[in-house]
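Render this sequence as a predicted structure.
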Amino acid sequence: MKDPRIDSSEEDLTAQFNFLMEVRDKLSETHSTIKRIRTIREQVEDIIERMANHDQADTVKSSGTALLEKFKQVEEALYQTKNRSNQDPLNYPIRNNNKLSGLVSVVSRGDYKPTEQAIEVKNEITMKIDSELSSYQLFLRKDLPAFNALIKSLGIPAVIIDMDVIPVVQ
């Protein structure tokens, strides 16, 4: 129900709501991807550590390290991993997830539709995030199976990720 004291139309309020839901959904997708990357990293690091005394340790380590570097590039484009204290954002620039989340406070102030500038910024940041999510999916479908094949040939269980929850960039 629209507040009778405001001049905004139902369409304006709907546009604001839809904008905020789109931002929320993209942030959820981004954060889910970051969590999956961290799960993969933990498993790969564990495999490298367990293989330290194996005769193929160097091969596993180099392959695993290369895989981790690819996922790290995606994670660091999406999320600032170096922030530890309140002043760290001064030293390390914010990343795409933080830029997108900043739009929420701007657009949710008041009962107005999003400005053209806010829409443009959202579209630009979303495009950058989608590019990183596409890279993530490529690594997940190409590089991770190659690593899993290597370690499986050595009798080590594969890196497991729930394929049903892999985000699909629209």
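Summary. The helical segments are 10-50, 57-78, 88-91, 96-107, 116-153. The two ends are 32 Å apart (CA to CA).
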